[in-house]
Write a structure and sequence with these properties.
The complex is a heterodimer of chains A (185) and B (157). Chain A folds into 2 domains: 96 residues, Rna Polymerase Sigma Factor, Chain: A (Orthogonal Bundle); 79 residues, Arc Repressor Mutant, subunit A. Chain A contains 9 helices and no strands. The longest helix of chain A has 23 residues. The radius of gyration of chain A is 19 Å and the shape is elongated. Chain B is mainly α and 157 residues long. The radius of gyration of chain B is 45 Å and the shape is elongated. A two-stranded antiparallel sheet of chain B has the order 1-2. Classes of the chains: A mainly alpha (185), B mainly alpha (157). The interface between A and B is large, with 57 and 35 residues.
């Protein structure tokens, strides 16, 4: 059953149909919130808020875009509201490095440590970006969203999304070069 | 590792994660507490009615302001407000004798003279005698003849 068919059923008050939509899109909604807030607890609450708001406003969904795009836009707006709140800012300041860093596997201990150190520098460089560039880069690199969906979330054209991603990469590379890391290419 | 791969790994690490298994249940519980099925205006049904009433009131006010002159509007407002404050009074016509009327006329002083209608004769303007200019008859142009001009005065109705 397609999303649109489930939306039709949910509009008629079928909670099971909406439950199916939650199952399908909960990861995408959660990761979008995580990209904006970087605190898992906040992302979880924002994901809940987004689904409840989507349920309440199903009558306003006109089908101009896909249901996923519409839902992600709601989630992003919820995340932005949370980010602007003082409580959210305090939480992020305390738990800035809450997300665990991945460890390299299969390489020697030194290589793994060096790789981990480079990733840490890259993360710091990404966090130092402006919110506009950082949000776009994180959404693009998460692999869950097309450029069109990112553009709908951020309310910018696809061309602007592409430019922001390229600009963010350039700035991160510049920052890494400042740490003495030179691309081996 | 290339820098692009490095950036990709770092960015993916910052957005990696799965929602807790409680998310679905929490959403379902919150939806269950909301009455009725989702509808466009079900959450605030009184807003369109209130907005419509406000528009009607403003439209009536503007319409009355445009139609009535300012004095009329103020007077009618005052009369309406006075009528709402004062208790209703029933007036009985009192018998009036001829002597009372004469006394009232005397007390009000001498009667003013009634305005007479003014008769104005029509104004007659005689044309100025201008010497005829030389006219080229070959062009077929005839000299202009000025007739007597008579202006009738306006009559008061």
């Amino acid at each position: 059953m397609t999303d649109e068919e489930l939306v039709l059923l949910a509009r008629q008050g079928d909670p099971d149909a909406f439950d199916q939509l939650v199952i399908r899109h909960q990861s995408a909604v959660y990761r979008a919130a995580l990209a904006a807030l970087r605190v898992p607890q906040d992302a979880e609450e924002v994901a809940q808020d987004a689904f409840v708001r989507a349920w309440s406003n199903l009558g306003r969904f006109r089908g101009d875009s896909s249901f996923k795009t519409w839902l992600l836009t709601i989630a992003w707006n919820c995340a932005m509201s949370r980010r602007r709140s003082l409580l959210g800012w305090l939480r992020r300041a305390v738990a800035m490095d809450a997300v665990a860093e991945p460890r390299d596997r299969g390489d020697s201990q030194d290589t793994a440590m060096a790789g981990s150190e480079m990733v840490r520098h890259a993360r710091q460089a990404i966090q130092a970006l402006t919110p506009t560039l950082r949000d776009t880069l994180l959404l693009a690199q998460s692999g869950d969203y097309s450029y069109g969906e990112i553009g709908a979330m951020l309310r910018v054209p696809v061309g602007t999304v592409k430019w922001r991603v390229a600009e963010a990469r350039r700035k991160v590379r510049q920052e890494l070069a400042g740490h003495g890391y030179v691309d081996a290419r | 590792m290339h820098d692009d791969q490095l950036i990709d790994r770092a960015a993916q690490a910052m957005t990696r994660g799965e929602p807790s298994p409680h998310l679905r249940g929490a959403v379902r519980a919150r939806i269950a507490h909301r009455p009725g099925r989702p509808a466009r205006y079900s959450w605030r049904p009184w807003i369109p009615a209130l907005a419509g009433a406000a528009i009607v009131i403003v439209a009536i006010t503007v319409w009355r302001t445009l139609l009535e002159p300012p004095g009329e509007l103020v007077r009618s407002t005052r009369i309406a407000s006075a009528a709402s404050v004062m208790p209703p009074v029933t007036l009985q016509p009192a018998p009036v004798s001829v002597r009372q009327v004469e006394t009232a006329e005397r007390a009000s002083g001498p009667a003013r003279p009634r305005p007479r209608s003014i008769v104005v004769d029509p104004l007659v303007i005689e044309p100025i005698n201008v010497p005829l200019m030389a006219v080229d008859s070959s062009a077929g142009v005839m000299p202009l003849e000025i007739e007597l001009l008579r202006i009738e005065p306006l009559q008061s109705q």
